[in-house]
Amino acid sequence: HGGAIPPEISNNLKQLNTKVTTLGNQVTELQQTVQTVSCSSDPCQNGGTCLNLLNSYHCLCPSSWAGANCASDVNECQTFEGTLQGCQNGATCVNSPGTFICQCSPEWSGNLCTVRYDDCRNGGQDLCVHGLCIDSDRVVSGQPKYQCICESGWEAPAGNPACVSDVDECNLPTKPCSSNPPVPCYNTQGSFYCGACPAGWQGNGYSCQDVDECLTNNGGCSTTPMVQCMNTMGSFHCGPCPPGYEGDGRTCTQSNICSSNNGGCHPLAICSSNPGSAFPLCTCPQGYTGNGYGPSGCTQISNICETNNPCVNGHCTSTTSGYICNCNPGWQGIHCDQNINECLSNPCQNGGTCTDSVNGFTCTCTAQWTGPFCQTQQQECGGQLTGPAGSFSYPNNPGHDEYDHLVSCTWVVRTDPNKVLRITFPFFHLESSNNCNFDFLQIHDGDNPSAYILGKYCGQNNPQELYSSHNSLYFWFRSDHSINAGGFTIVWESKDPVCGGDLTASYGNINSPGYPGNYPPGRDCYWTLSVDPGLLITFAFGTLSLEQHPDCNYDFLEVQKATLTSGIPGL
Q1: Helices marked H in 234-380 — which ranges?
Q2: Which residue in 65, 116, 46 sits closest to 88, CA to CA?
Q3: What is the distance between the alpha carbons of residues 121 and 130, in angstroms, rounded to a whole number?
């Protein structure tokens, strides 16, 4: 044995090897026969892959073809309809052999129409220049479509959507700068600016307020003696110098009453001015006696009448027996030292009170009467008037009577706190003058002279109706020393205050009630601003002066943004 393979096993192995070799040859022949019969004729079309089967084959077709031999076209338009593999965004699908084509709408591109055109290209500054580019849906293929919303101060010229044309704000129907007083407007590229307010006014040029010169150093009018300073719109003027002074009101110098005819004193008397009086002081020289006034004011002393003058209030005449006193008017008694009481005859009429004085009397009249004897009915001048409606006149019968010279009086008309006043002028006739510097009626929007001046009127033309912004008005009437006229009648009635509103103009301004004066309390005003689609609204605050507090819980101005039906944002 010695490890050798037994003969019978060796023979079996040889036989097995022969059988395996024969089986392999048979399998190879079978494979060649199958391939020759199945795929040798290349039956799969349109790029299909052929798989051999026993006495048969199978075609693996591309996605665009179907059928046993991949000869039937697949209609992708039906297969992919409503899926992300088909045409998108309203495109039209067109099937073709082995594929399909998407015909996009004008706003879309790409194989499946999934890429949207952006005609503004990174904000569109190169397209709109001075504006905001808003992309729009294309209507015609190949033609870009967009809209420019111009910045303030720019607009798009005809035929060009770009914002390259400057808006001349100074030539708009509503001028941006102050018109009362007029302030020049200067246009610049994309903007504008206002000149300075004229002399007598203050502000930024958008709006100008009158400077009350009288509040500082009496406006430059005399303070010694004191002269009344009267403020006017854009200016002021000084009243007349008081008696005993002369000048233009800015400068008043004491009158030299003695320069003419010795001031009315006796030629020998010494004349000197008497501050605060229209008459001088006359002093007779040494050796003379008398009051110094007039041709007989000084008499040379030569007798008892001249040395001692026993007549206190009269003229002493020497006689052989002594002297006789000839009393001055208003005095009686041996020495003219007893005052005559002129009130004993009851000279004051209509309830007037008589006060005796030297050589005369004074009547203190009731409010309804005037004159030296209270014989003339008083012209009512000034007062406090209240009520929802009413009227007042000066003088009492304007047009029939004429007002007096050198009148300065005021009225205050007041209605309910939640109402305003409407004023009309049925009759108006004052002296005419440039700028109403002589006789005038001045009206303030409030109950005191520091309130804003609504107007200053003179002449014969009836002023237009006025509305207050508060529940009170202050009226000041003044006449000078020369020409007078028929006066005026004023009628008032109460109205509900109105503020706010709907504004649609392309340019304009918003003012608080009473501007440029103070706004009244208790108002709640709403303004709605609307513009055409495609436009923006910008604000420039010429003046903003409100009550200051940390949370703006009391007086405030609030700006809110709304959305219009067009989808364009507004304010």
Answers
A1: 304-307
A2: 116
A3: 15
CA distance 75 to 87: 13
Query: Which amino acid, one-letter code, is at 245?
Result: Y
pLDDT tens for 209-234 read 999 999 999 999 999 888 999 999 88
Tokens of 260: 């003419």
Q: Which helix (H) or strand (E) holds 125?
A: helix 125-128
Q: If residue 78 lies in a helix (H) or strand (E), which one and from where to where? A: helix 76-79
Give the separation between CA 426 and CA 489, rounded to whole angstroms: 6
Q: Which of 119-128, 397-406, 535-544 has the lowest mean pLDDT?
A: 119-128
Long-range contacts of 168-171 (CB under 8 A, 24+ apart): 168/192, 169/507
- Stretch among 110-124, 140-154, 196-210 having the lowest mean pLDDT: 110-124
Q: pLDDT by residue (tens digit) across 519-560? A: 888 778 888 988 888 788 888 887 888 888 888 887 888 888
Kindly tell me if the per-residue pLDDT of 570 is higher than 50. no
Q: Tell me how crowded residue 301 is: count the other CB atoms within 10 A of its CB.
A: 16
Q: Which fold has domain 214-254?
A: Laminin (2.10.25)
Q: In this predicted model, what pLDDT tens digit does every residue of 293-302 receive, in sequence order?
A: 888 888 776 6
Gap between the Cα atoms of 214 and 450, Å rounded:
11
In order, the DSSP letters of 5-74 are: PPHHHHHHHHHHHHHHHHHHHHHHHHHHHHHHHTTTT----TTPEEEEETTEEEEE--TTEESTTS-EEP
Q: Where in the chain is the domain with CATH 2.60.120.290?
A: 379-495
* CATH number given to 379-495: 2.60.120.290
Domain 170-210 belongs to what topology? Laminin (2.10.25)
Amino acid, res. 530: S
| Closest among 535, 570, 534 to 136, alpha carbons compared | 534
Checking if the pLDDT of 32 tops 50, the result is yes
| Lateral strand order in the sheet of 466-467 | 389-394, 487-495, 420-429, 466-467
CATH superfamily of 76-116: Laminin (2.10.25.10)
Burial code (b: 16+ CB inside 10 Å, e: under 16) for 499-524 equals beeeeeeeeeeeebbbbebbbbeeee
Residue pair 410/382 in contact by the 8 Å Cβ criterion: yes
User: Cβ distance 59 to 47 under 8 Å?
Assistant: no
Compute the distance between CA of residue 205 and CA of residue 543 in angstroms, rounded to an integer. 10
Dist. CA 424–CA 429, nearest whole Å: 14
Which of 14-18, 99-103, 147-151, 449-453 is least confident?
A: 14-18
Which residues in the chain are classed under CATH 2.10.25.10? 76-116
From 208, 203, 205, select the one nearest 194 (Cα to Cα).
Answer: 205
Amino acid (one-letter) located at 241: C
What's the farthest any 2 CA atoms get from each other in the chain? 218
- Angle, vertex CA 505, rays to CA 500 and CA 507, nearest 5: 100
Residue 278 is which amino acid? A
